[in-house]
Structure formats: C-alpha cells, structure tokens
Amino acid sequence: MKTPVVDGRGRILSSVKTISGALTAEGINVGIVCGRFNDLITDRLLDGAVDSLQRLGVSPDNVTVAWVPGAFEAPVVARAMANRDDIDGVICLGAVIRGATSHYDFVAGQAAAGLQRAALDSGKPVIFGILTTDTLEQALDRAGAKVGNKGAEAAVTLVETLSVLRQLDP
Ligand code: INI
Asked: What digits encode the pLDDT tens for the residues 82-121?
C-alpha cells in the first residue's frame, strides 16, 4: 500500500511502500514457554495468551506449551522451539518480581537478552511476555487485573510480527 508522507505543514513529500501486520492467525503453529516461578501469575498469563490466540484464529491443536523452572531458563527452550520446522513463533511468559535481592536484575536482564538472541538466531519471532515488576500486586495487575493481561498482549504481538515477516519473505 502506498501511504503519502507529509511534512509538518501537510505537504506531501513522497509515497512510501508500507507493510503492517494483519491480525489473522489461521494455520500458524505457536510455541509457548512458561515459567513455573511465580505461577500464581504465569498461569494467568498463559490463560490470556491461549485465549487471545484462539480469538485470533489459532487452533489449540497448533499450540505447544513448554514449562520451565524460571524466566532464566526461557531463552534456551525458546530457541529450541523456534528452531523447529513445525513452530512459526514463540511466546515466552514469566514473572520476575524484584523483592529484596539483586537476583531480579540478573534474571530479568538475561531473560530479555537471551530471548532477543533466540529471535535473531532463529529468524522467528520470540515474544517477551515476561513481567518485570517491583511487587506481586503490580504483577497481578498485569496478569488480568487492572492493567490488562500481558500474556494476551504477547499473543497479539506474535501474530502481528509474523504477518510482517511473512510479507517480507521473498
Ligand atoms: N525466576 C522467575 O521467573 N521470576 C523470579 O522472580 C525469580 N526470582 O526472583 O528469583 C526467578 N528466579 C529463578 C530463575 O529464573 C532460575 O530458575 C534459577 O536462578 C535457576 O537457574
């Protein structure tokens, strides 16, 4: 689609080709990596992700869930999933809650870096659906209470990103 690019005064500068993701997901195969740590939260994120995928047209038969001990273990399993021919993209779900120790920073930072690497190494979307919060209450808010469900958002993000990548595939 050609979209006119305008300057601050509304003058048309050029026409650019624009690609944007559609939210249609029929036929895609999804891997979900879910951390058992803080499973009060991650169970809810998983429910949100699966529900959202179904609404977008993904059959439950096309979803594979792998549980890992904690967010730190998510990248290696996400990478293994992403490297499979029968998986189109991966959603990673977890809850890293700061608490009183510096463990949080290591776990959250390495999970984020590792998941990005899994995506770039595999060339498939690996979605960061890991909550990083100061408190349990903030995590609950983002797992279906006051501030939506990060798992459901992660599912939408996966479908949109896959759609963009497919349009770029030669
Ligand atoms: N794992 C989490 O997923 N969330 C946390 O909040 C967390 N904290 O706070 O420690 C956590 N730690 C475990 C970690 O992911 C690994 O499983 C563990 O370090 C073994 O490698």
From this structure: 999 999 999 999 999 997 667 888 999 999 999 999 999 9
- Ligand 1, atom 6, lies closest to the CA of 96
Burial 20-48 (b: 16+ CB within 10 A, else e): ebeeebeebbbbbbbbebbeebbbbbbeb
CB of 41 within 6 A of ligand 1: the answer is: no
Q: Is the CB of 109 under 6 A from ligand 1?
A: no
pLDDT under 50: residue ranges of the chain: none
Domain spans in the chain, listed from the N-terminal domain onward: 23-168
Q: What is the CATH number of domain 23-168?
A: 3.40.50.960
